[in-house]
Amino acid sequence: MLVLLAFIIIFHITSAALLFIATIDNAWWVGEEFFADIWRVCVNNTNCTEIDDSIQEFSTVQAVQATMILSTILCCIAFLIFVLQLFRLKQGERFVLTSIIQLMSCLCVMIAASIYTDRREDIHKNNPTLYALTSDGSYGYSFILAWVAFAFTFISGLMYLILRKRK
């Protein structure tokens, strides 16, 4: 059982790390001369433009930002609750709250990545020069890490549900 708990702790910490990297790092959409994320667009590694309310689809960007931050916070809270429940609750009651919070984190990261997938083009249409540059690109590793974090948080949430009855 200790090996299983150690595996779950490492898995959960990995999920949180993936969420932090996906939220902070600047590689959601990349091309030869630029890279962009949910916070800014950088051209030639020197000219960075913050995504602000001057962009037509700013509410879309805010939704992605908010859900990624919420997902990261929920994942960290779930870990703290897991540690507290590990020693405080009796068998059968353990990890249900942790599972619920982890699955909410999973839902948030899924919503953020889905919105970004659907509305990525709309984010830069207000600036024609920037849109022409960023239209030829591909999804970067931070975007992929967000989807991997979705899978990890989902699996982790299910593991907590299965673990609730184990001794």
TrEMBL record:
It is a multi-pass membrane protein. Keywords: Cell membrane, Cytoplasm, Golgi apparatus, Membrane, Nucleus, Signal, Transmembrane, Transmembrane helix. The keyword Transmembrane applies. It comes from the Eukaryota. One of its GO terms (molecular function) is integrin binding. Residues 1-16 form the signal peptide. GO terms for biological process: actin filament organization; actin-mediated cell contraction; apoptotic process; bleb assembly; blood vessel endothelial cell migration; cell-matrix adhesion; embryo implantation; positive regulation of cell population proliferation. It is found in: Apical cell membrane; Cytoplasm, Perinuclear region; Golgi apparatus membrane; Membrane raft. One of its GO terms (cellular component) is perinuclear region of cytoplasm. The chain crosses the membrane at residues 63-83, 95-116, 139-163. PANTHER family: EPITHELIAL MEMBRANE PROTEIN 2, EPITHELIAL MEMBRANE PROTEIN-RELATED. Belongs to the PMP-22/EMP/MP20 family. Interacts with PTK2; regulates PTK2 activation and localization. Interacts with ITGB3; regulates the levels of the heterodimer ITGA5-ITGB3 integrin surface expression. Interacts with P2RX7 (via C-terminus). Interacts with ITGB1; the interaction may be direct or indirect and ITGB1 has a heterodimer form. Functions as a key regulator of cell membrane composition by regulating proteins surface expression. Also, plays a role in regulation of processes including cell migration, cell proliferation, cell contraction and cell adhesion. This is Epithelial membrane protein 2. The gene is EMP2.
